[in-house]
Design goal:
Protein name: HTH IS21-type domain-containing protein
Radius of gyration: 13 Å
Strand content: under 5%
Length: 59
């Protein structure tokens, strides 16, 4: 059986989260504050995901 490791599964979740944040902000024109309220994350965390390309969070 070929299951993803715990680290790899977490990385996929982070990439998906980053993708959703970028889509909401750039395509759907949500503000950083609105995204942080919807997701329950700090505004600085949202900014971090918007500045990155998603791959830098996979350390």
């Amino acid at each position: 059986m070929n299951r993803p490791s715990r680290h790899r599964a977490g990385a996929l979740i982070i990439m998906e989260l980053s993708s959703v944040i970028q889509r909401w902000h750039f395509r759907d024109n949500f503000s950083i504050r609105d995204i942080s309220r919807c997701m329950g994350l700090a505004r600085n965390t949202i900014r971090k995901y918007l500045r990155s390309d998603g791959a830098s969070h996979l350390r």
